[in-house]
Fold mannose-6-phosphate isomerase.
Amino acid sequence: MERLECHVKEYAWGKNGSDSEVARLFASGHKEFSIGQTTPYAELWMGTHPDGPARVRSTSEKLSRHIAKTDSSKKLQKEEIHLPFIMKIMSIKHTLSLQVHPTKEQAARLHQKDPKNYPDSHHKPELAYALTRFELLCGFRPAEEILKNMKAFPELKAVMGEAACDQFEKLYKAGYSQDSIQLKNALSRIFSNMLYIQVDEPDFVTEQLKLLYNRLAKKVRGCLIEDTVRVMEKMYNDFPNDVGCFSPLYLNHMILEPGECCFYAAEELHAYLSGECVECVGCSNNTIRAACTPKFIDREALIEVLNYRMTKPEFYMVNADKMDGFPHVVEYAPDCKDFTLHQIEITTDPNSLSSQLPAKLPSLECGSIMVIVEGEGYIEDSITNTPKYVTRGDIFYIRPSCTVRFNSITGNRLLAYRTFSYEEGPDHSNRKTIPIFPQTVTIEDRFSSKKNIIPIGKDKVSFGMDIFDVESEMDGFC
Ligand SMILES: [Zn+2]
């Protein structure tokens, strides 16, 4: 088990200073770190992706190299072996842009055509586990709800195109299901009209948005709940001229309570709105943006990539599964091979099943990353057999087949998250990213009093002649 040093990403949409769980968690693991109160701490990256690679604390070596060195099962010797996922902690203050991620095949094609905007040839499924109340837009609403909102808000039909909307309604009333290719094609047409009207007639969009928000002020609701109206008002305030402000009328507004978890694969339109979460994503940084961003919007790719599934928000929820023999572990296993998430909760409550110590974690035949988010205690692994004191903010890489157990905890509760996958991650060896201006931290090793200088923190990368900030979840809009 190796302790890791991981990157914090500062994006404009992140929560500021001590309001951000990203900042607080990082500070808990680094006593020497002082939180900048006006700095937006958006994401903590725990993985091997070249845009924010974790390093082994004791050696400063990149985790991908450490895995390649220690993985005895690989016949082919590689310099670096990547994990197929990045686990993140996210703290979101402002809505992120409306976006979609490509499938593996689409990603490979986009990367070949436009490597600057699509730096990876890999897909990016996403899972969000709510740490606080967490809100997002995800997937098209059921056809019936879209039709209801078209009726209540004529402005929606105006930007989607009257004739195309009538055709959508006619097909639905004729009995075509929302899974039929005919209705999906009709949805694709109205969605495409809406994206291009922003380019062709921006003043018309601004005018229709004013009418829409006047109507909302007069308590017209269609099938919107009050929470969605609140989200729309915030979006309009941030993006008064953006056609993306219509999106809650045709996308599901999901509100996750702490402990709830959702997942969506490629081809699903989505936007994070607010809150804090543990996120698991594929080891990729490809995003196609639709709206609500000053960044590159690729309408053509977007229209082609979307799957136009219309469904209820429940479709995206992930079950919390108990694990036989491990009462302190809850598993979130979405329908994808790139990651599975374990929530580990050990308490001293004598009435709780998760109070039995020592508490063993499932032994996995693959590498995993674990972050302690609450509490402290002693942990032991089957490689060193030496108890280690661990506390909130500590992040570990656990080797395949290494057995880990918590021997004791101090306080009432210890809470951790662990992500793993049996897949091997993508090959990033040809990725043209060169870290420049790296920030470093000096850390003192708790166990050996050794001092290490570790490159960490925000970094920029150069690609060919262009210098640009690497941003993952697209940037938000401020
Ligand atoms: Zn995304």
Q: What stands out?
A: Residues 325 and 362 are 9 Å apart (CA to CA). The longest strand covers residues 404-420.
